Amino acid sequence: MEKLSTRFDAETLLKVAEILKTIAHPVRLSILELLENKEKLTVSELMKGTGIEQSLLSHHLIKMKDKGVLKSEREGKNIFYTLADKHIVNIFDCMEGCSIIK
Amino acid sequence: MEKLSTRFDAETLLKVAEILKTIAHPVRLSILELLENKEKLTVSELMKGTGIEQSLLSHHLIKMKDKGVLKSEREGKNIFYTLADKHIVNIFDCMEGCSIIK
DNA sequence: CTTAAATATGACAAAATGTTCATATTTTTA
DNA sequence: TAAAAATATGAACATTTTGTCATATTTAAG
After folding, report:
1. What's the pLDDT at A83?
2. Fewer CB within 10 A of the terminal residue: chain A, N end or C end?
3. Cα distance from B33 to chain A (closest Cα, Å)?
4. ipTM score of the complex?
């Protein structure tokens, strides 16, 4: 019997799952979308962009930062969030090609 | 103030999140990986390929089917599972380019 | 027609996640 | 230095997700 192929090892699959789980939420995706076009945005700007309440947004941002999806840096009174790795938003192209979401 | 861009509308973001949530699990990813190279596989073959116990595997398969990620068809005693849309596995290319998972 | 093989189902417990609310922290400004 | 603006934190709670186990269903084979 042929051996079934494995492109990723177990550990990598875990990491991939971890990242996907981290972004698999409408608000988080919306945040990524905004950061795809704006490079860096403050929490306040993200509040307006997403329409999400401050505390909840903060929770989302911090989780994404913890998981390595976002980075942040303070600039005076504001904190700017950016994509830790711009490649992540390729997922949007990916999903756009999928008939499942139509 | 500039309007922040929105590539996907809220409804689509929901669907995308739904799909990502569905596949964001190491076993599910492993299933997709196997189906990337084999077109159709029975539950038994997937058991061997993933090393997952029958009942749990079945739960995973059925959820992915419910969410539109997989399809299945009976052939005698076996049930073959296939990708509903092959584009979904592009996510692997996508993630491979991401330094986050290294 | 009984059994075996392959797969699905359903109930349940445990763990993870999402949300809200109240409050804390940090920085700037009056 | 007190108040305001921007953001983070943490507890409490509801919801969802995972995994396990026992059992059901379907089909083929003896």
Report:
1. 98
2. N
3. 7
4. 0.94
